[in-house]
Amino acid sequence: MKIKLDENLPSEAGDLLTARGHDVHTVQQELLAGHDDDDIFRAAIRKSRVLLTQDLDFSDLRKFRPGTHSGVVIFRLHKPSRRRILARIRQLIDETPIEEWKGCFVVVGDRRLRVKRPS
Predict the structure, then answer these.
(1) Exposed, middle or buried, 85 (CB in 10 Å: 0-12/13-18/19+)?
(2) In 3-state terms, what secondary structure has residue 9?
(3) N or C: which end of the chain has fewer CB within 10 A?
(4) What is the C-alpha to C-alpha distance for residues 89 and 13, in angstroms, rounded to an integer?
(5) Cα distance between residue 99 and residue 50, in whole Å
């Protein structure tokens, strides 16, 4: 799966996902660090990448309706830390077919996972 990793997630997450065969680009690699959310979202759409982020600006389901983009995955952990985010990503790639998130709107919590699929 083609993934764009937002700057608010640990860069090591890209290493974990790449090791599992995913094609990961980071916002930093694409020189988009510090850019407006719309710029980052348009870049993800242009390159057909699923955006992984913690940014709540991407949480409006009306604006980011499933099927209108390559996918948005928002991490909403209770006490997010580098260690906890990486542990949750490891768990997801071990237990969940994340390839099925293409075109979906996904909210990843500490224990819960909500996937809204295109209708």
Answers:
(1) buried
(2) coil
(3) C
(4) 7
(5) 10
| Amino acid in the structure at residue 75 | F
Residue at token pair 């985010």: 85
Q: What is the CA radius of gyration of the chain?
A: 13
What is the total residue count of the chain? 119
Proportion of the chain in helix, strand, coil states, percent, rounded to 5? 35, 20, 45
Tell me if 77 sits within 8 A of 109, measured CB to CB: yes
As given in the structure block, the two tokens for residue 71 are 């996918």
Tens-digit pLDDT profile for residues 76-97: 999 999 999 999 999 999 999 9
